[in-house]
Amino acid sequence: MKKTLQIARQVLMLLILFSCFLMNSLYSREIEQDTGKTEIFELDQGCKLTFIKKGDLSDSASTKIVEGIKNLIPRIQKLLIPTDSVNIILETNSEYILPVWGLGARACGDDNGERVEIYIDQNHPNFKIEYIFRTLVHEMHHVARIRNPDFEITLLEFMVNEGLADHFMIEVLNCEITPFSSSLTEEQIQENIIRVKPFLRIKHDEWTNEFGEKYFNPWMFGKGGEDPIPHWTGYSIGWKIVEDYLANHPDATASSLVWTHADIIASSTPELSVENDKE
Questions:
Q1: Does pLDDT of 2 surpass 80?
Q2: Residue 235 is part of which domain span?
Q3: pLDDT bucket at 36, cuts 50 / 70 / 90
Q4: Which one of 54, 112, 224, 228 is most buried, counting C-beta atoms within 10 A?
Q5: Are 6 and 142 within one domain?
Q6: 105 and 25 share one domain
Q7: 168 and 134 belong to one structural domain
Q8: Which one, of 195, 169, 173, 172, lies nearest residue 184 by Cα?
Q9: What CA–CA distance (Å, rounded) separates 31 from 260?
Q10: C-alpha distances in angstroms, 151 versus 4, 36, 131, 159?
């Protein structure tokens, strides 16, 4: 149990918006203090914001971003435990962004604790400051979930993880569903649930390149070739799994389910119910 948590914190496979971090081995990336302007802000419950500004970002935009994060953190922490002592790194950087939102992000961890990294391109035509706040809420749910001592490395866990994080984003901000969770039609979701089902509950003691290349990357981000998988399949399936559970449990929320086992949440999706498999 302890080993699983340590692995989850060190590797943190939760690539929230894009996969280039994994492929480019950025998990040990250090902040270059001599490039751009770095400001550090103390937040509630031991959290910290490190804001690294490169290029042009107006003072008014910076103020709006910082004040928005300062106001958002207590709202997240009120709903979600544990989300204390998280280092939030926000950097203006056009290299590590997802074009659909003009930003990119990930939650990760090491021996020094968990951190959330968000990269924004303020000059990208699709960028909006509100996307920073949506992304931060999403990532903070990931941070809380991987602190569960029973965290498991399965494909089902990662899909549910994404679904919970996006539902939590809407719980906090009352915004619309993301392009990632809504990328597939209902028909495509059903078809791909059946395809991926044999691989969903395979447990892995640790993250391996084989797991990433064979299961995680293709099912979360899609692939081409003779047996293609639609882009963002894992995100849309994860959203659907959580949506089914919430529909059957009206008193539940994404925040209340932060440590709920993925099998329990998947039990409300008929195709994935363990009980149905026993019949």
A1: no
A2: 155-278
A3: confident
A4: 54
A5: yes
A6: yes
A7: no
A8: 195
A9: 34
A10: 7, 37, 28, 13
DSSP state at residue 184: S
- Interior angle at CA 260, CA 278 and CA 171, nearest 5: 125
Query: 162 and 134 share a domain?
Result: no
Instruction: Point out the domain boundary residue: 146, 178, 201.
Output: 146
The domain boundary, picked from 146, 175, 197, lies at 146
Task: Print burial letters for 103-126: b (CB count within 10 Å at least 16), e (below 16).
Answer: bbbbbbbeeeebbbbbbbbbebee
The pLDDT of residue 111: 79
Q: What gap in Å lies between CA 91 and CA 104, rounded to an integer?
A: 10
Tell me the whole-structure pTM to 2 decimals. Answer: 0.87
Q: Kindly report whether the peptide bond that precedes residue 198 is cis, defined as omega within 30 degrees of 0.
A: no
Do 135 and 165 belong together in one domain? Answer: no
Specify the length of the chain in residues.
279
